[in-house]
C-alpha cells in the first residue's frame, strides 16, 4: 500500500482540529504552532495504516469546528473517523521535540546499562527479604 | 507440476525458536538439514521502535495480530469463536521477532500436575531431565538473569540481569513490604554484547522487534550459527502437506514458492516446528489413505487441548517519575508468589506476574480513553500527558489448563494467500482461568497500591495476546492419549518429530520459549543418538 500524502488543504483541516484537541498548555505549544508540524502529520499519516482514499474521505468529511463541544458531537457521530484522525494528530504532536522536552521525556532514548548498575542496586540489600524468607519456594 | 528436490537427512518446517535450535544442533552433527520458512529474513532496520512514529506503527503495520497486520508471509486465523486472538509472526526467527524475551523455565511442579494436584496429566519427563538443556540454551543465547531465586531449583546465568531502574526499585520495595516474592527479570536479552547480539540500549520496544539487534530473537540468536554449521534455510516456502510413503513413514513435504510453483522436498526425517497452531494445521492438512484423519492423529488429539495463557493487566500511573520509558520490555521483575495451587483460592494453579515499563506517550494516554470527552481532550490533555514516563504495568500470565474443546481445525472457507485452508481457533476461557484472572488482577492492583500509584487501570483480559500456542500435539507415553512420545517422535510415524509448543502437556504459567527451545535441543540430540534408525 502506498503511503498517503496529505495536501495543504488537508493539513490545514487537521491543524484546525488539532488546535482544539491540543491547545497550548503549560510549556507545551498549541498543535498548529509545533515546529515542523506539517512534516510530522505526513509521517503520522504514513504510519496510520489508512489508505489515501480513506484518509482523504475522512478529512473531507470533517465539519468546521469552533470549539471542543463541536468536536465531541462529531466524535460521537463518526467514532471511527475521529479515532483515526485523533490518533494521527496525537501521534504527530508527541513526536515533536518541543513537546517531549516539555514532558521531560528523553530525546536520546539510547541508554545502555552501566557495568555496575545492577550490582549497585543489589548491594543495597533489596533482595535480602526475598531470600531470607525463602519467598516463592514451593 | 511438482519439482522433486534432492533428498536430505532432515527437513525442518518452520524457522522459529524450535526450528532454529534443531537445525543448528543437527547440522553441527554433520547431518544435511533443510529448513522451510514461509516468511523472510528480517533486519533490525525493519523494526519501528527507533522511529518517532513507532507507537502508530505498532498499532498498524507492526500490530502483533496477523489478521490486522496482513503481511504476505502471515496466514489468516478465523477467531470468530475464540475469546483470544493468538499472535504470531511469519519470518526467520518466527514469533520471537515479537516476543518480549521473558525467559523463565517451567517449575518442577509443572511436569507433574496429576501427581501433585490431581488434575490434567503428568508430563512423560521431569524438570530434572530438561534442566541441562535449559542451561545450555541459556548459555548459548546469553540469557541475562540472577541465580538463586528461591522459587526454583538452583540455576545461574552468565550475564547479569538488567537493572531494575527507578520503577523496579520502587516496586521491589513495595513487594518487600507486602512480603511477596519477586525476582529481577530473566530475559533472552544479553545485558552486554554477546556473540553477534549488540548491547541492549533499553529502548523498551522489544515487542515490535529490536532495532538495536540486542534481543535474542532466533534469527539472530541461533540462525547465523546454524547456517555456518551447514543448515540450509529456504525462505518464502509455504508448506501445504507432509507426504508419506507406502510404509507410512514421512517422506517429505510439498511446499509452494513465492511464484506459486510446487516443490517436493524429500527427507529421511521430518521435524515440525511451526508452532502450536501451524503444526496442528499441517498435520490436519496431511491426510492420506493411511492417515485419513490427519497425519499422526490416531489418538484424535491433533489440534485439541489448545492452551493460550490468557493475560490480565493492571497499569499504575505514578506522580513520581518512574522512568517508564526505559526498557527493556522485557520484564523489570517477575513474581511467582501466586504460581502454585492454593485450595483456599478456589481454583487450580496460578500465574507468573511480570512488571514492565510503558515507554510510549500514546500508550499512556490510551488509559484515559474512557474519560468523558471534555476530560480527555482540550486543556485536559495537559493534565493527562504528564503521566508519560510515569507508568508501570503488571501483567499476569495465567496458567491455562488443557481442554479438548479448545482446539484448532481447518476452516472450510478461509484460505491463506496460496489457497491453503487457514486455521480456525475455537477457544473459550474456562471458569478456572476466569477465577485465576480475577484473583491475580486484584493482587496486582494491591501491588500498585503498595507502591503508591495515583491511578490504577484494570484490564481484565488482553484479547490480542499472547503468542503462547501450546498443547495441540501433546507428548506422552500412551499413544491413545498423546500424539508424540517423550522424545517428540510421533507415535504412529517413526521418522516424524515435533519440537514446538504443541507438545506441551500442560502450559505452566511462564513464558514458554525457554521450554520449547530446551525441548527442541533434547529432541535434536536424541535424533543424533538414534540416527542409524533412519539413515543407516
From TrEMBL, chain B:
Alphabetical list of InterPro entries matching this protein: FAD-bd, FAD/NAD-bd_sf, GMC_OxRdtase_N, GMC_OxRtase_C
Bilayer-crossing regions: none
UniProt domain Glucose-methanol-choline oxidoreductase N-terminal: residue ranges: 193-310
The Glucose-methanol-choline oxidoreductase C-terminal domain, residue ranges: 402-520
This protein's record includes keyword tRNA-binding: no
Molecular function in Gene Ontology: FAD binding; oxidoreductase activity, acting on CH-OH group of donors
Name used for this protein in its record: GMC family oxidoreductase
Amino acid at each position: 500500500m502506498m503511503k498517503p500524502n496529505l495536501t495543504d488543504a488537508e493539513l490545514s483541516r487537521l491543524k484546525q482540529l488539532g488546535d482544539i484537541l491540543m491547545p497550548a498548555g503549560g510549556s507545551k505549544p498549541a498543535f498548529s504552532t509545533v515546529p515542523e508540524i506539517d512534516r510530522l502529520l505526513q509521517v503520522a499519516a504514513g504510519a496510520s495504516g489508512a489508505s489515501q482514499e480513506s484518509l482523504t474521505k475522512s478529512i473531507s468529511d470533517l465539519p468546521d469546528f469552533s470549539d471542543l463541544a463541536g468536536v465531541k458531537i462529531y466524535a460521537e457521530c463518526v467514532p471511527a473517523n475521529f479515532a483515526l484522525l485523533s490518533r494521527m494528530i496525537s501521534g504527530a504532536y508527541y513526536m515533536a521535540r518541543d513537546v517531549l522536552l516539555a514532558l521531560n521525556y528523553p530525546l536520546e532514548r539510547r541508554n545502555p546499562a552501566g557495568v555496575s548498575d545492577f550490582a549497585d542496586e543489589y548491594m543495597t540489600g533489596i533482595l535480602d527479604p526475598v531470600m531470607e524468607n525463602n519467598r516463592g519456594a514451593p | 507440476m511438482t519439482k522433486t528436490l534432492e533428498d536430505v537427512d532432515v527437513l525442518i518446517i518452520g524457522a522459529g525458536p524450535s526450528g532454529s535450535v534443531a537445525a543448528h544442533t543437527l547440522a553441527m552433527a554433520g547431518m544435511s538439514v533443510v529448513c522451510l520458512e514461509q516468511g523472510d529474513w528480517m533486519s533490525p532496520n525493519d523494526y519501528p521502535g527507533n522511529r518517532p512514529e513507532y507507537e502508530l506503527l505498532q498499532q498498524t503495520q507492526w500490530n502483533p495480530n496477523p489478521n490486522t497486520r496482513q503481511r504476505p508471509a502471515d496466514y489468516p486465523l478465523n477467531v470468530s469463536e475464540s475469546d483470544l486472538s493468538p499472535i504470531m509472526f511469519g519470518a526467520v526467527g518466527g514469533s520471537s521477532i515479537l516476543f518480549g524475551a521473558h525467559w523463565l523455565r517451567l517449575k518442577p511442579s509443572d511436569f507433574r500436575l496429576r501427581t501433585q494436584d490431581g488434575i490434567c496429566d503428568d508430563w512423560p519427563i521431569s524438570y530434572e531431565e530438561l534442566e541441562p538443556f535449559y542451561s545450555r540454551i541459556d548459555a548459548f543465547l546469553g540469557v541475562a538473569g540472577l541465580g538463586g531465586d528461591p522459587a526454583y531449583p538452583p540455576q545461574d546465568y552468565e550475564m547479569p540481569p538488567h537493572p531494575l531502574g527507578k520503577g523496579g526499585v520502587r516496586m521491589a520495595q513495595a513487594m518487600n513490604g507486602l512480603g511477596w516474592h519477586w525476582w529481577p527479570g530473566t530475559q533472552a536479552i544479553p545485558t552486554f554484547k554477546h556473540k553477534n547480539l549488540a548491547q541492549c540500549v533499553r529502548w523498551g520496544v522489544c515487542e515490535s522487534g529490536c532495532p538495536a539487534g540486542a534481543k535474542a530473537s532466533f534469527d539472530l540468536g541461533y540462525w547465523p550459527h546454524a547456517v555456518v554449521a551447514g543448515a540450509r534455510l529456504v525462505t518464502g516456502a509455504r508448506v501445504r502437506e507432509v507426504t508419506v510413503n507406502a510404509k507410512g513413514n514421512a517422506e517429505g513435504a510439498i511446499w509452494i514458492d513465492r511464484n506459486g510453483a510446487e516443490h517436493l522436498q524429500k527427507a529421511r526425517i521430518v521435524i515440525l516446528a511451526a508452532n502450536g497452531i501451524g503444526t496442528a494445521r499441517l498435520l490436519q492438512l496431511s491426510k492420506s489413505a493411511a492417515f485419513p484423519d490427519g497425519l499422526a492423529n490416531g489418538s484424535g488429539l491433533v489440534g485439541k487441548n489448545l492452551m493460550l495463557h490468557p493475560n490480565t493487566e493492571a497499569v499504575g500511573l505514578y506522580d513520581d517519575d518512574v522512568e517508564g520509558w526505559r526498557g527493556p520490555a522485557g520484564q523489570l521483575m517477575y513474581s511467582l508468589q501466586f504460581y502454585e495451587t492454593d485450595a483456599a483460592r478456589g481454583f487450580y494453579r496460578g500465574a507468573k506476574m511480570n512488571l514492565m515499563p510503558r515507554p510510549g506517550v500514546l500508550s499512556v494516554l490510551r488509559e484515559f480513553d474512557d474519560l468523558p470527552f471534555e476530560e480527555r481532550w482540550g486543556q485536559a490533555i495537559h493534565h493527562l500527558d504528564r503521566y508519560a514516563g510515569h507508568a508501570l504495568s503488571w501483567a499476569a500470565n495465567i496458567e491455562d489448563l488443557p481442554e479438548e474443546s479448545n482446539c484448532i481445525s481447518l476452516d472450510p472457507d478461509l484460505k491463506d494467500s496460496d489457497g491453503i485452508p487457514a486455521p480456525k481457533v475455537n477457544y473459550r476461557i474456562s471458569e478456572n482461568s476466569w477465577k485465576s484472572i480475577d484473583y491475580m488482577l486484584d493482587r496486582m492492583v494491591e501491588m500498585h497500591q503498595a507502591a503508591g500509584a495515583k491511578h490504577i487501570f484494570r484490564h481484565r483480559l488482553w484479547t490480542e495476546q499472547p503468542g503462547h500456542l501450546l498443547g495441540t500435539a501433546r507428548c506422552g507415553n500412551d499413544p491413545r492419549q498423546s500424539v508424540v512420545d517423550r522424545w517428540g517422535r510421533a507415535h504412529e510415524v517413526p521418522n516424524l518429530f515435533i519440537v514446538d509448543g504443541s507438545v506441551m502437556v500442560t502450559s505452566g504459567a511462564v513464558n514458554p520459549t525457554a521450554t520449547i527451545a530446551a525441548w527442541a535441543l533434547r529432541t535434536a540430540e536424541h535424533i543424533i543418538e538414534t540416527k542409524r534408525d533412519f539413515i543407516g
